[in-house]
């Protein structure tokens, strides 16, 4: 029987990267709702990320998105972050918002557009050198809407070439992290729709090329934790984009749609060594707080990951292995569920307090008056959005 | 054996309503791409609809969306349309783009917001009286993103009340058409997610309340033609929003993703009497031409409907019934497929020509220079978008 | 704040109907595995159901399936059940295993086959009179595999007629419960695929015709709790067939695939009055224990329903309503989740003990030696199967 | 503009492998319907396969399933096939119908069971040597039904080891073909659920290990033709199991559910070189004729593949490439659709006749009296089934 005290030490090193864009306004194709207190500058986004870290101790890094987070002086931005107690994490490229990318970027049939997309990634790598970021994450919006519109095969060849040229600019400490997504914004085919495709590309690039698994980027019914186990076994799981979905890439708060799935995913992460401090697996959020407040939305999210990590650590793996080895279907399942059903919230609150953190971060944030302050202060300017 | 000549007379009365918003810019949450020649005014959108009709003879009506198509003088707009050879069709309401509607409209827990949403529909009804439109189509973006966020049950009660108050303002010739959608922009629940829910509401309203079936608004694997048959049998199929989907509500060109599905749907429409001139079923498009040119995109769409209607009419229903009655699985299926596999394009071209229309509308449009003209003329102003 | 003591009284009247067929062998089209201790007679199946009730206090009724559970003397079977401490519940008809039903039963194009299917239901009604059962549950395997194979529309008409003739034989105390299912064994269309279709048919029959919701019979991504709310609002939710699914109609142990979904469903049941003692909603299991032991599989299942019912009852509905009314998205969601995350297992164990039941039924069953006894005793004969 | 005459030569080498099991009875978990004329012996199954080839010229090989097709003398069986004009194709293993395989075969935690499963494959390899078959196809039913039931990670390790030991027994001319499937008969996880997993395993084995793509084994919404393109690009597409699905692994007649998908798949096959005579891609059917007659069901199937191959060959690839390179979305799509919409049936009938085959194989088979003959002759004995 594993107890909270047994697992508490393993909670120490948990670190979740939050995305700068989660603090800006987001929405659906139908409407992006504004909300009071939304950052107007990259610095204010970093401030919000730092606030999440201050209340939870869980979010020491913030991921940037280029060009959304372009600033003149990235060294200054890095110092600003450090002053707030956080570091710059993954750099995310963006080849989906320029008119030239209407029919693709790194896969584009027009060499000029493709070169532009490659150059954009080289610029991202410069940002990495300036900020100390180690990961370049590439999510492609590339794809097509109509059968016949594009030649899927040659696009793969061009993608391979583009990635190689980008990868060549990374040093050995830096990583290229390739994300896959089944659909959206393209609606017939996407050029990296599944983990198999991402795997083939990073295999071709080398050791420091890995895959990013966004939990909302799969077909309905996909067993996501299996893919986690598989990528870990292949040594190719680079990072997570955590969020929840019920239908498509809904980008909801992680753990809100199916907490048991989050538990299963984290169990496989632990099982496969991905939770070890040196595993190289980066835990990131990628969410859209379309209707809820953004800072508490992020606090809720990192807490959900922490709570489910604790539950997953609580699985009595010895008893589990024994039941599995005995072919005891119900017994093994029950051992697994026991951990999931264990309410760790009280223990976690005490543990947080013992480390100088608020016992209940959501309540502490609400009571802090911080939200009211930023809503009052951040008036004028243009709210950041995507 | 049914021949093209047998069915040609039935093609005469085919009429497809095109949506004004198809001519404006649209896109995904990631990007709305602009395109040269896009209308800057409601009048220019109507001109584009009229162009589609001129080249195809298939699109005599254009649906409006309020407030996107709000003008000061709807009588003048009506005359403008008539001068171009088209009429104003369905009026679509919009309760998803005002900040007040963040958590709902006709279902909102705040009576003030709900009243505002109701009032918006009364304004739409005024537009109907001014334009001669007979149908008020209501698609609700209402729903919630998180379990517990909203009380689904009381929202149904409020929706029923809202609809009743709107319906009360319609005269006996006018119809309330309620659309359903499984998700988006809400990602946990929507308040009218399926045809069963829409049915219950229109049953409560009365004879002149009917359901709109958007072909892209269902869960994966849903047999859409079965729902068509069912709604026709219940006397409650009011209209179609035609489009194609591969994943979610992709709003692609109708017939482009699965032409056989379009064939099956049109077969059930015909089978159930929905293609009869007096059936009351309105055939509408609801699409987004995110990356393709909009006018030829619409021409392609109405042609797809026409071609599949012709194929569906070609089904030898006598032979089919005989095989079905004999329990001849392969024989009945083959009779059905025979019609689908028949290439009607040559016959249709000749038939169009005989009626003074271009034999091949896509080629005729391309050759006409119209696209170049509007691209050159429509410079300055603000492109219409949603 | 709602406590376990507040809700304990409401647990008293919980009653879950177990299916006789869960104790027989089941499997997939690939293989039905036998298992030691499987009943050879209807009586032994009832004994197993009674065992589940003895260990849990939750399963006072057992549903029968005709012809699987045909016996010469149903009065004797009823007495046998009563002697074991359980009652006969719902009678399930079966029109999918006779060669005549290859192309349908109640919808069949051949009047002789259709009459045979109707007559089978009249026989079921006789069993109801003999056993005191109040519910006739009809699940149709009817459908087609190929487009064109069958005339979907006339099948609806024949179904309506068949149901009317069956319904006419029920007395006012008895109910016709119509189940829907999206697919399987038919793979193109099924004749009652969704709740909307089931609703139309039971509306046509009258007050004592209601719908059965099997939690595994929906398209991927369907919000099942919404349908629960909707059917309750319409007064047409007759019963549940509980089970779990990941992909299709997997018929797994209820709550095993997505415990949070079970929580949400039970919350809507309670919210809509369906958990009231006089609600008329019957809670049934419909599962296949293909690889796990059957009696403990059923014990696990009824416990899962009980545990999630307790959690759902724990929702602080006053606080929830307040947060909902305030438009507090995160607050309302958190109130909802608080109940789900509360570990009720200890309280439930104590509560069971206080009522003379085993604190931990799974352990008590394992320790009882009952499984070993039936495995030793039930040798020879033919194991019941479907 | 590509014409039928241009492509006719490429139709010459088309060869589709038919499965012996398609001629036996099959069904769902609910019922396997028998049908008159069903083979009682392996030889009769081969006779039926030969009949399909005689009427179509398309099916020169028949795949076997071990142990379903176990005979004492495989050399004699091979001669029997050759006498009928067909050859023995792929050998399919089966580790899902023995009681020992309840919890797995090649992945089993019990070394004795795993060894048995490996040994079964060695037996299959012996059959390959005896029959001249070059392909060993492995589809695993392995998986689990409940989270926690099995250790997914160590099962991968055992699978890799099992495959290596099997692969070691093949000679350089023989291939190991690994099939993937998202679910069924396992309902929580399967050990080879997707092409990525299959790819990793065959990569580890070597050149003569390849992947089998069953068109019905994917999650809803999966773009199957993309996977075809991807596996061809990686040099790892070994064979197809063709069939149709609407929901799960429905195993319907290929092309019946979505003919346009079949067209798109065949286009990518051609585009990627998979249709070249020396490509090594084997085209197989894997279907269940649950309710339709089996021989004409197979004839219909191979004709569907032929008709869609012809349409796919008709794509004007030069015009297509030009439109794609010009970024002409609608033009490229239209060029693609032009081929799909072309009715090739008349040309194919003439072409068949010119080669001494029946112009219309379905009609010819119906007129031949063959079905009546086997129904009259094949009385007594036990119908083959699975």
TrEMBL record, chains A, B, C, D:
Residues 74-221 form the Xylose isomerase-like TIM barrel domain. InterPro entries: L-rhamnose_isomerase, Rhamnose_iso-rel, Xyl_isomerase-like_sf, Xyl_isomerase-like_TIM-brl. One of its GO terms (molecular function) is metal ion binding. The keyword Manganese applies. Pfam families: AP_endonuc_2 (PF01261). Keywords: Carbohydrate metabolism, Isomerase, Manganese, Metal-binding. GO terms for biological process: L-lyxose metabolic process; rhamnose catabolic process. NCBIfam families: RhaI_grampos (TIGR02635). This is L-rhamnose isomerase.
């Amino acid at each position: 029987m594993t107890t909270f005290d047994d697992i508490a030490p393993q909670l120490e090193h948990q670190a979740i990267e939050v995305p700068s864009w989660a603090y800006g306004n987001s929405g659906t194709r139908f409407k992006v709702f504004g909300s009071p207190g939304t950052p107007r500058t990259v610095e204010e986004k970093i401030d919000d990320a730092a606030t999440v870290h201050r209340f939870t101790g869980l979010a020491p890094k913030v991921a940037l998105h280029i060009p959304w987070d372009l600033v003149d002086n990235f060294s200054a931005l890095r110092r600003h972050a450090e002053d707030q107690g956080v570091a710059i994490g993954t750099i995310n490229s963006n080849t989906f918002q320029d008119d030239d990318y209407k029919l693709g970027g790194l896969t584009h049939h027009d060499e000029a557009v493709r070169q532009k997309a490659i150059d954009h990634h080289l610029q991202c790598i410069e940002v990495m050198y300036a900020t100390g970021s180690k990961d370049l994450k590439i999510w492609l919006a590339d794809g097509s809407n109509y059968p016949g519109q594009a030649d899927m095969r040659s696009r793969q060849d061009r993608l391979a070439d583009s990635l190689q040229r980008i990868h060549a600019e990374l040093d050995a400490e830096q990583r290229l992290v390739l994300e896959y997504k089944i659909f959206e914004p393209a609606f017939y085919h996407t050029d990296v729709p599944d983990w198999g495709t991402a795997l083939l590309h990073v295999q071709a690039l080398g050791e420091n090329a890995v895959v990013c698994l966004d939990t909302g980027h799969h077909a309905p019914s996909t067993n996501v934790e299996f893919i986690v186990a598989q990528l870990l076994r292949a040594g190719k799981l680079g990072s997570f984009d955590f969020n929840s979905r019920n239908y498509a890439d809904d980008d909801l708060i992680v753990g809100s749609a199916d907490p048991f799935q989050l538990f299963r995913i984290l169990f496989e992460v632990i099982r496969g060594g991905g939770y070890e401090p040196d595993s190289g697996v980066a835990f990131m959020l990628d969410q859209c707080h379309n209707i809820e407040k953004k800072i508490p939305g992020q606090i809720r999210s990192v807490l959900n990951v922490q709570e489910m990590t604790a539950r997953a650590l609580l699985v009595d793996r010895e008893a589990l292995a024994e039941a599995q080895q005995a072919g005891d279907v119900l017994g093994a399942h029950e051992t697994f569920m026991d951990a999931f059903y264990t309410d760790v919230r009280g223990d976690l609150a005490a543990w947080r307090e013992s480390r100088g953190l608020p016992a209940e971060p959501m309540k502490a944030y609400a009571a802090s008056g911080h939200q009211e302050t930023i809503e009052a202060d951040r008036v004028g300017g243009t709210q950041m959005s995507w």
